[in-house]
Amino acid sequence: MKKGQTGEGYVERMDFPNKGIVKSEEGTCVVKNALPGQKVSFRINKVRKGKAEGRLLEILEPSPTEQKDSCPHFGICGGCTYISLPYEEQTAIKQEQVRKLLDAVLKPVQPDWKFEEIKPSPCIYGYRNKMEFSFGDEYKDGPLSLGMHKRGSFYDVVTVSNCRIVDADYRNILQCTLDFFRERQIPFYHRMKQEGYLRHLLVRKAAKTGEILIALITTTQTDGFVGQEESTLLEAWKDKLEALSLDGRITGVLHTINDSVADIVQSDETILLSGRDYFVEELLGLQFKISQFSFFQTNSYGAEVLYQTARDYIGSLGGKDKTVYDLYSGTGTIAQLMAPVAGKVIGVEIVEEAVDAAKENARLNGLDNCEFIAGDVLKVLDSITEKPDMIILDPPRDGIHPKALTKILAYGVEHLVYISCKPTSLARDLEAFLEQGYRVERVTCVDQFPWTANVETICSLRKQKTNL
Predict the structure, then answer these.
(1) Domain range spanning residue 28?
(2) What pTM, to 2 d.p., does this model score?
């Protein structure tokens, strides 16, 4: 197989995260965003060490199990991968992907390891409690759009006014915002030219309480307003939002300024336009205040399944005098779930805003045995005097920094629970645990992200006792 060559064939399977394995007369090729059972045509764009990767050109035949009532944006928007398949097939694909990745690491050391059945999301449509929509145009010099980036594009933006992974409130807020700024011809921030005003719309909504937090992210470039005052413009936008008929209740509207060149949602300054700068969600009987940048699982009902599973995996600590480390603790959800059965829980999180929220949440829930420290796990571990009896890990997608992993292993705790949002990172980190005498006790997946290629994995690890 050669670069530039075209071919066609059937997709035999999907490897994590969205790699369709296509068998053709020319050979085997990895084609992203194709689905099992489809017949596709592709063009090879890379050949390395005998392995070919190609770009999807056309779906020649749909999969026999594909459904016709999929999202109207599917295939154009880059958000979802499996929304045209039955939900049960999607979860089966994810389970097999993770099992295969972990098999490669565990079988040589622990051939009898067992994979527990994947846990589905209790809610499969309208489940997301956070969306970051981008401003742009759907094609060069086209009208203003607001939504998700087109599949395979860094610049073109699809207005996802019928997105199925959010509820009607998100869709109404998106359409209201888009109509408002379109009518006033307010320019979006053009990444290549580095000019323009509108960047992102952040919407967060609590599934349990219905509270909604909205933030408009802009630059400070107001030259394109044609005489309009920024404060007057934003006040009018806020009034339009608050006049909407929604199932939930808007508790805060923010204006966040971001002049960074990078295409990320961050704050140089945040101005409160109305209400308060947080919303409240409930999980497993606890309340959590969540601000615009606080990490919180994006599927509230799925998060309850995830954390209940984690709590089951943790089990009994063997006494209320035990110290638990919750590393990469976010807003302190797991730490607070562990607090009633532990002597002390120490959470470490690099995002200061999330740590502030964790402290406030512990106070809100009447928990006085939680300590939260802001900083990089790699550095903070050197300053904590209390040694852990157990460690809970919930790292970002890239997994644990190798130097931090060395420090974690040095504690030699008997029991660890690792929660991973990227199974390839988990598989890599597991090798280090296995080398230090840990064995996988239990492992399962929780589908936090229906229709996308992502999945959470929970792994309980226990250190083997050595015979002296």
Answers:
(1) 6-61
(2) 0.90
